[in-house]
Specification:
The complex is a heterodimer of chains A (520) and B (495).
Chain A: H1 2-7, H2 10-27, H3 34-56, E1 65-73, E2 78-84, H4 86-105, H5 113-132, H6 136-145, H7 147-157, H8 162-191, H9 196-203, H10 207-216, H11 224-242, H12 251-258, H13 261-286, H14 288-293, H15 295-315, H16 319-341, H17 349-387, H18 399-402, H19 404-418, H20 424-439, H21 441-466, H22 482-500, H23 503-519
Antiparallel strand pairs in A: 1-2
Chain B: H1 3-18, H2 24-52, E1 59-67, E2 72-78, H3 80-99, H4 107-126, H5 130-151, H6 156-185, H7 192-196, H8 202-217, H9 228-235, H10 238-263, H11 265-291, H12 296-317, H13 320-352, H14 357-360, H15 365-368, H16 370-384, H17 390-405, H18 407-432, H19 450-468, H20 471-481, H21 487-490
Antiparallel strand pairs in B: 1-2
Helix pairs in contact in B: 1-2, 1-4, 2-3, 2-4, 3-4, 3-10, 3-13, 3-19, 3-20, 4-5, 4-10, 5-6, 5-10, 6-8, 6-9, 8-10, 8-11, 9-10, 9-12, 10-12, 10-13, 11-12, 11-18, 12-13, 12-17, 12-18, 13-16, 13-17, 13-19, 13-20, 16-18, 16-19, 17-18, 17-19
């Protein structure tokens, strides 16, 4: 079985499942429930495929697994090159989990549900492809494949200010992508390589910098460092907008707030991970020297992201916007961990442990935040749906009496989000801070401020919405239905499971973290 | 074999002229069959070339003396670049017929002129005698004028006249340059491979290159000689704008590459930076102007100027990757611009009778005509150069080439890409979605017909196929750039 699976182009098929599922859903008759069912079945099939991938994944082995490599455009030296390591696997699993969850959240969406579900599946294909591609050209195809569906998901099914939100999202992301594309073309012009692995191999001994300067240096770029920094910033911009990192985040609050619930869950749960993934998979291995040189400004950006977004969340009066800023805040921890791990502090083995802790924390945080944030948006969506469109912090109160289960489960999610021990968020944030405190004490210390504010506004949500006197208009508030409970059960169970036995994920992420660290 | 693409198109045109004037259906079917036959021959020719000829070789199809006294020969030949563009012409020709199925006014004459134009275009791409090439080039211009002047829309006489004047001035420049080359070389031949061997003195090359290249590039929409393009595109009937953007603009770029660059490589190197600058100005300017247009067709017209800028920039890089990107971009833009004009001119304008963005917006086309909306979105995505479509690999190669020669300009070209995304996004929003759906329910439009669907699938299939398997064309283009004809280009620097 193992041998056969390694030969079989499993990752390609996994990417094709949602793509073909989406096409099938589009072809089905629109007047029935059939398209939705097809789409949901395809997402479950993809989830099963991802689970199978996990089962077959050899955690004891470093390096790429399930590798597929065939010549694709020989005249340009482009290979179709796929493979996953622990990081890729975690992200594929996360995307596969979030998509069915998001579909259930928007089960009764209108108008034109067929198109909605097909677009979600196309987005999933883009996610799978991004997390498995190892050559820039087709990686970029998948990277952009996520964008067009997301644009239309916001534009067609979004809230009242959807046009502006969708435009802003699209233009920002594409501006970042174009900068990244230009930077990669410069790398290709200098080295003739598009393969991430080969480029990283060159980068190890400053080979990339030298090649760039030999080919593109001259009158315009006078020093090797400037040129490499410019190229680095181009790639950086692409990921910084996608993640996002302040000050490139301004598209995020309105995009998340205007998007329909299911789309917001996907945006925060899976698509924001594309940016963080890029930092880990591409920026760290390709530009270690530049990351080190700019470590302080980068850390400042991460800290600002963490603190400012927490403060912004505190100032919001709209639950969905609070969730959006909270999501931004949690991504900030990932970036803090990554930038801390760049620190060059002697050869002592102890430092490697700290760096590994930080990077493991980052990967876990990506997974955990994906689960928690999408669950949070799910709850906000439920509140909005039950209240007929209201989602202000002050519109509610005392809902605990009317809907105890609702309150309990949303409470768990909020606590997972603020990092209560025993729930998933704690482990990852703990690892990030454990790693980054010794490495970059000042940044980690200031960031704890963000933790504090997060706790304040998440508890404020709990208090304002669920405690206090129950308003008369909400006395008929419906508790969670059986369907909603069933939808949430696996997600909540995972929050506990990953909080109590984080080893499940660490065993996958650790080899990947060590491989990244060994590289530079 | 590919020579028959020319003959069959002219035969088709002649057959149409013999049909009784009122038989519209027969005229349409004849035109479609002729275009299909042309495409089939082009495909067979491509397969044959790929299988039987060493990669990149120049294959003579016909080479007989024509006007012996002047050394003019009837010399048709093909290499990978010709084959690529002949394929493009074949696809564009079929799609153009499919999208003009609804022409009721003088159908017979319309398609006869249309096929004559196609025949001329095939001829240019296959001629390797400069005089012959020039003859076909002129044949392609004349029917263009009549197509626009008789079947056009907005300000059609103005658009047609402007196009004709620009083209004729351009071709006069080309002609002067070619005759000068003929005289200076003293070899008494117009044969391109023969002339390319002659080392023209550098001082002569400097002005001759400029004359011939700019003369051709007028038709490729080189800024600031582009102004015929938007007005011409807008005035032309749908099929004619498809051909105008799809293949006629390629004639200019092809002529610049095939004639000016191979004959006068030193002149090319002399003017390289200046023309690259004009190309990048065209990219940014075309996109920026498209961003503020109120007429949907003008948006697409200016976008063509922007996209052709990438072709010219790629040519000016003088690197093999840049050149192969430029040729691929010719193919890609031919398909994508054709599709955009088909959507805007046929699917939208013929039904709504307006192209004003402000009037289109309340109609909410995504509900009114879902097929047109989806096609428009896909064509727009291809035009943005999103990966997966043919334009991506083409622009990628052009920019890689440009990085190593003009790093500064490359960054501006990147800005041009962004502007290209912005104007397409703007027209998506303005045409596809209404702010309130009240009015759209009142309007009824005829559904998208079968020929239109077939044409849309043909063009979308072509751009996706090349986007996902660019090797299909790159295997034709790249080896050709190593052939003897292009050797003078690589003399000076690294390939």
């Amino acid at each position: 079985m193992v041998v056969r699976m390694k030969m079989f182009p499993f990752l390609t098929f996994l990417t094709l499942v949602p793509l073909l599922g989406g096409v099938a859903a589009l072809l089905a008759s629109s007047h029935t429930k059939l398209p939705r069912r097809i789409a949901f079945a395809a997402s479950l099939l993809a989830l099963a495929g991802a689970a199978l991938l996990w089962a077959e994944f050899d955690t004891g082995r470093a390096g790429w697994q399930f590798v597929e490599r065939v010549a694709w455009v020989p005249s340009l030296g482009i290979d179709y090159h796929l493979g996953i390591d622990g990081l890729g696997l975690l992200m594929v699993l996360l995307s596969a989990l979030i998509v069915p969850f998001a579909m259930l959240a928007s089960w009764n969406i209108g108008p034109n549900p067929k198109l909605y579900f097909a677009l979600i599946l196309f987005l999933e294909a883009g996610l799978f492809g991004t997390f498995t591609a190892l050559n820039f050209v087709h990686w970029f195809i998948y990277w952009e494949l996520g964008l067009i569906p997301a644009f239309f998901l916001i534009k067609i099914w979004g809230g009242p200010r959807r046009t502006r939100a969708a435009n802003q999202f699209f233009i920002y992301t594409l501006a970042g992508s174009v900068a990244m594309l230009l930077a990669f073309l410069a790398l290709y012009a200098a080295t003739g390589l598009f393969d991430f692995g080969q480029l990283a191999g060159l980068a190890r001994n400053d080979g990339l910098e030298n090649a760039l300067f030999a080919r593109l240096g001259g009158s315009f770029f006078k020093s090797k460092e400037t040129l490499a920094a410019v190229i680095f910033l181009g790639v950086f911009l692409g990921f910084a907008v996608k993640a996002p990192l302040m000050p490139f985040h301004t598209w995020l609050p309105s995009a998340y707030a205007e998007a329909p619930t299911g789309t917001a869950m996907l945006l925060t749960g899976a698509m924001s991970k594309m940016g963080v993934y890029g930092f880990l998979r591409i920026l760290l291995p390709l530009f270690p020297a530049q990351m080190r040189a700019m470590q302080t400004p980068l850390l400042c950006l991460a800290v600002v992201t963490i603190v400012f977004s927490a403060a912004a969340a505190l100032a919001q009066r709209d639950l969905k916007r609070m969730a959006a800023y909270s999501s931004l805040n949690h991504i900030g921890y990932c970036l803090l961990g990554i930038f801390a791990a760049v620190q060059l502090t002697g050869p002592a083995a102890a430092w490697t442990t700290e760096k590994a802790a930080a990077l493991n924390g980052v990967m876990l945080q990506m997974f955990n935040h994906g689960l928690t944030a999408s669950a949070l948006f799910y709850f906000v969506g439920l509140i909005e749906q039950r209240s007929g469109g209201l989602r202000g912090l002050d519109d509610f109160g005392g809902l605990r009496k009317a809907a105890p289960v609702f309150c309990g489960l949303m409470g768990i999610t909020l606590f997972a989000s603020l990092g209560l021990p025993g729930l998933n968020g704690f482990v990852s944030e703990f690892l990030i801070f454990k790693g980054s405190l010794p490495l970059v004490g000042w940044a980690a210390a200031v960031s704890t401020l963000g933790l504090l504010i997060t706790a304040v506004f998440l508890l404020a949500i709990l208090q304002r919405v669920f405690s206090g006197p129950l308003q008369n208009r909400w006395t008929g508030w419906k508790d969670l239905t059986t369907g909603e409970r069933l939808t949430l059960a696996p997600v909540i169970a995972l929050m506990f499971l990953l909080g109590i036995c984080p080893q499940i994920l660490i065993s996958v992420s650790n080899p990947a973290a060590l491989a990244i660290l060994n590289h530079f | 074999m590919p020579a028959w693409t020319i003959y069959i198109s002219f035969l088709g045109a002649a057959a149409l002229a013999l049909l009784p004037p009122e038989s519209r259906r027969a005229a349409r079917i004849t035109a479609l069959l002729t275009a299909l036959a042309g495409l089939a021959i082009a495909l067979c020719g491509a397969v044959q070339y790929e299988r039987q000829v060493p990669p990149g070789a120049l294959v003579d199809l016909v080479n007989v003396s024509w006007i012996a006294d002047l050394g003019i020969r009837y010399h048709l030949a093909a290499d990978g670049i010709s084959i690529t563009l002949v394929l493009l012409t074949g696809i564009a020709a079929v799609a153009g017929v499919l999208f003009s199925w609804n022409i009721e006014h003088r159908t017979r004459e319309f398609f006869a002129l249309y096929l004559a134009l196609i025949g001329g275009v095939y001829g240019v791409f296959l001629s390797f005698d400069l005089f012959l090439l020039f003859v076909f080039y002129e044949i392609a211009i004349i029917p263009k004028y009549f197509l626009i002047a008789f079947w056009g829309s907005t300000r059609r006489e103005y658009g047609a006249m402007k196009l004709a004047l620009y083209s004729l001035v351009g071709s006069a420049m080309v002609l002067i340059g070619l005759i000068a080359a003929f005289v200076v070389s003293g070899s008494r031949t117009f044969d391109l491979p023969e002339l390319a061997k002659f080392p023209f003195p550098p001082a002569f090359q400097h002005w001759a290159f400029l004359l011939v290249f700019v003369g051709f590039a007028v038709l490729a929409g080189l800024w600031p000689f582009h102004t015929w393009a938007p007005t011409g595109h807008v005035a032309a009937p749908t099929a004619a704008s498809m051909l105008l953007a799809g293949v006629v603009m390629k004639l200019g770029a092809y002529g610049g590459l095939r004639v000016a660059m191979t004959l006068f490589p030193d002149g090319l190197r002399f003017w390289q930076n200046e023309i690259a600058l004009l190309a990048v100005i065209g990219i940014v300017y075309g996109g920026t102007v498209a961003l503020v247009q109120r007429d949907l067709k003008f948006v697409i017209g200016y976008s063509s100027v922007s996209h052709m800028g990438f072709v010219l920039l790629g040519l000016m890089t003088l690197t093999q990757i840049g050149l192969s990107g430029a040729v691929l971009q010719m193919f890609s833009h031919g398909i994508v611009a054709g599709l955009l004009f088909a959507v805007v001119g046929r699917m939208i304008y013929d039904r709504t009778h307006t192209r004003e963005l402000s009037e289109l917006q309340p109609m909410n086309l995504s509900v009114l005509a879902p097929f047109a909306a989806v096609t428009f979105v896909l064509a727009g995505a291809a035009s943005m150069g999103l990966p997966g479509f043919s334009g991506f690999i083409a622009e990628l190669q052009v920019l890689v080439g440009a990085w190593s020669v003009f790093p500064r300009l490359t960054i501006f070209a990147g800005v041009g890409i962004l502007v290209g995304i912005a104007f397409m996004l703007r027209v998506w929003i303005k045409t596809l979605f209404a702010e309130n759906d009240s009015k759209s329910a009142a309007i009824r439009i005829e559904p998208i017909s079968i020929p239109e669907r077939a044409g849309a699938f043909l063009l979308l299939g072509a751009t996706l196929l090349i986007g996902l398997w660019p090797g299909l064309l790159l295997d034709l283009i790249t080896p050709t750039l190593h052939s003897p004809l292009f050797q003078p280009l690589w003399k000076g620097g690294s390939p």
